Structure formats: structure tokens, C-alpha cells
């Protein structure tokens, strides 16, 4: 989705009233910009509840809008989907969630006649809440795949975060707000963390200061929310911000309701380190989907029956981890999608049911690739990912397919745009794509023994080796590939990954701590967030990985499933060590 480019000089004569600016921008939209329409995008129409008290939702058809639907229903309200511009104009309360790419969203809004209706609705000071892209579209333009014209209601250009200032892009995680004025829906939120996931932002200025209700700092101060009258918009995701986010939505949708305030335990000051609960899901020998855990990727018990290790039911465990304070929940479907991705209905149902009551980000991985079924029907990885998103996933994790794409890219130097990583990143944004790396240590006697990046080990190898390189694997660690973790991480960042989930087969299930050498190597090499995985056995292992590396998050599975170390204990320990976490 690429918008035609045009010079910045075309922006300089946009001035005057909001109405004249809006009219000029819409005219420029129609006359100056040509979009390539995404084939699967349309305004969804599935009206749930049609009375005047229903919440009107503008779903333009990309990313996980299921989460905001679930949050609205959780609060006891019905939803009416926008089908025509008149539905916008007649709305009593309108929510515009935005996930994906700015150009794609504006393309749909303009092609369906929604842009002008939105401007009219907002100019008339009707109750409006924009989320993420729903905030960005209010500005004059965005640099994402552009410049691309926005609605032009708020002065300013939406630009990309600069990774050169030391910040990892995308901005992913729980950050703090600085309230600038009475914001109504953000009352009592100033000292709490909310969830962000974006690569582009608008910055406060003299021209837009009357709109700005809060800012957030991530290298620079950027606009985290705006408000004028009944018009609100937020850059973060309230539907993914736990109880705090539900409180924000409740204040917008049910302004006269009263709720008990949660006692403030800690004041949020900056981006928090994330603690993620991971659930490996597979069918057991009876055909039931269970949460399991491997020992160096072996998920079967060392018993006479050699049965699949069963640690609980996926939906119930995910719900408990949400209540325990997990910052994200990650599902890895380790068997179901190997034969037919879109036919794995049980996993899609798990996502659907989990997202109805878990209001933190959900990541899912396993078998996301192009696929041809037994009848010769071809399914693109984009279609597979779309099913995940529609079922409630916020991010998808790609493993083996990303390794093959990186190998081809390093061999040819050409970005084909055809890999699952590139396709999904282009449509949904790189913040929606995680690449899972499964490396195994290969010990060396000297640093230059192989043609891959090696590290000097903190602890010597089994035969006294001082160095190792990390060989990437595919197919659940069963096949080694001629590419190192360092080379893979650098390549997938260039191909569009927004985050790296960094495992280590040698440490998996051992409980002796994360592979600090590996995590430091990769987190220093890339400018996207890195999630440390494999090896956690104590709360101290989490503080160690955050203190010794640039990991943005740490993930664990078995110690949470077996209740050896509760999530709350991990966070309390991190706080005592002076590490910012969400409580």
C-alpha cells in the first residue's frame, strides 16, 4: 500500500478555519493522491444491536478490532457497525479504532465516503473516540508510506519515531502519561501505565496545543491524547490496557457511571519492562488442546506412557495470568497448523474466547505461511494472519518462514515483498509482526572459526570453549539452518519485523536463567524490541536479563504454569531492584 508522493510545499498554503482546511484536504485527497486498494479491506457491516443506545463502531477491516468489540460488550453495551456515511452522522457515540497502515485507512474512508462524514460529525462536537490510527487520521498528514493526507482537523504531521536517539521502534509496551489539561476520560489515569504499540506519532506544537490533553515521553514528548469538547482520541490502546483501559472506555461510553478506584501502589514514570506469560498449545494423545511445556523442546513426559505434558486449559490459564498481572499473553500453537492453517478451528476459538475477558495484548504463532490445501486451494500467509487477527490476536509470531525469507534476502539482497513477513508487515504494520528465533549454541575454539557472528562466552563450553555462534533452527528446533541468530535478526528487521522473540534451545526448560550472551548480542544489534525467552527459573533471572541486556521484555512459561514463581512475585522483585514495571 503505497501512496503517491508529493512535495512538502503543497502543505504550506493550508490555513484558515477548520472547515476550509478540511474542504481543501478532502479535495486534495480526491484529486492528487492515487492509492492501491488493499484487496481484503472494506467497511464491515454486521450490526449488533440497532437501538439508539448502541455504540457505533467504524471498522475499516484491518487488524484486531475484535478487542474493542469485546471491551464494549464487556461493559454491557451493544454495537452498531457503520455501513454508510449516514450511520456516522446519526451516531450517538462513535468509536474509530485504527490498526494497520495510515494510507490504507484513508483509502477506505475516502472510497466509501466516510471521510467527509467524519469531519462533519467531529466539527459538530458529537461524542467521538479515536484510538491509535483513529487519533492520527485527525491530523493534516502522515509520513507513513507517504506523505498521505489526513482529515486535517488538527494541525500537524504524523512522523516516525527516530531510532537514532536510542529508542527502539516500534514503541511497544506500557508507558506513562503526562496530563496537560482536564481530559474527562483520563481522570485518575496520570499515575498509571497504558499500552502503546506504534511506530508513528504526532508532536505537540503551538498550533495544536489547544487540542492536547496528555503527552508521553519516548525519546521525545509526543501527543498521547487529544480532547476538545466531546471529541476525544488516544494514541494508546485502552482496550489492551487492562482495568485502566476499561475505566477510560467506561468514562467515554457511560459518563454517569461510578466505579471503585483501585488503590495506587506505584506511580508510573516511564516505559515499563514487560513480563509475558507464554502458553505452548498442542493436542494431547486424546485429541484435547492443552497447555504444555518442553524440556529443550521435548513436550512429552519421561514416563512409561510418554504422554504429552499437560499443564492446564489454555483459556483458563490465560485468564488467570491476566488477573495475575501479565503484561501480555503469548500463544504458540506447536502442532495444529502444520497441515492446514485455516482449518484449525479450536485454536481460533481459544483466541476468541480468551480475548473476550483478557484485556492485554495477545500474540499467537505457529504455521503462519503460504499454504495450498489438498484440493489445490491456495491460501496466502496474509489470509492466515487475518484469521488470527479477526479471532482476537494483536500480534502474530512467525518462525520457520521468517528464517527462509531471511536466507533468501541475504543471498540475493532483494526484498521480494512476497514473504509472509513482508506481506503482513506491509498491510498491518510492523508492530503487528513478531519473529520468533530458535537458535542452538555451536561452540567454537576461536571467534573467527565460522562465517557467522560469534560471542565470547561468560561461561565456558563443555570442553572449555570460549566462543559460540548461535545456529538458527526451523520446524520446532528439529532442523538446523546455515544462518546465525545475529544475521537472522538483522535481516528480519530490514524485512519488516517489529519485534523479536529470542529463544534458546539450550536453555529451554532448564530453569538456570536466560542466555545473557545471546540476548545481549541480539538486543545490541537491532533497533526493534527484543523479548528474552527460555531459561527463567527464579525472579532474579528477570532482573538479571534487564540489568545486563537491552531486552524490552522477558517471557516465561513453565515456572508460571507450575506456580513455582508467581507473576506478581516477579514484578515485586523487579520493583525492589529499581526496574519500572506495571502494577
Automatic annotation (TrEMBL):
PROSITE patterns: GATASE_COBBQ (PS51274), GATASE_TYPE_1 (PS51273). It is found in: Plastid, Chloroplast. Substrate binds at residues 367, 503. The keyword Chloroplast applies. Keywords: Amino-acid biosynthesis, Chloroplast, Glutamine amidotransferase, Histidine biosynthesis, Hydrolase, Lyase, Multifunctional enzyme, Plastid. One of its GO terms (molecular function) is lyase activity. The keyword Lyase applies. GO terms for biological process: L-histidine biosynthetic process. Pathway: Amino-acid biosynthesis; L-histidine biosynthesis; L-histidine from 5-phospho-alpha-D-ribose 1-diphosphate: step 5/9. Pfam families: GATase, His_biosynth. It is an enzyme of class 3 (hydrolase). GO terms for cellular component: chloroplast. L-glutamine binds at residue 132. It comes from the Eukaryota. It catalyses: 5-[(5-phospho-1-deoxy-D-ribulos-1-ylimino)methylamino]-1-(5-phospho-beta-D-ribosyl)imidazole-4-carboxamide + L-glutamine = D-erythro-1-(imidazol-4-yl)glycerol 3-phosphate + 5-amino-1-(5-phospho-beta-D-ribosyl)imidazole-4-carboxamide + L-glutamate + H(+); L-glutamine + H2O = L-glutamate + NH4(+). This is Imidazole glycerol phosphate synthase hisHF. It comes from Lactuca saligna (Willowleaf lettuce).
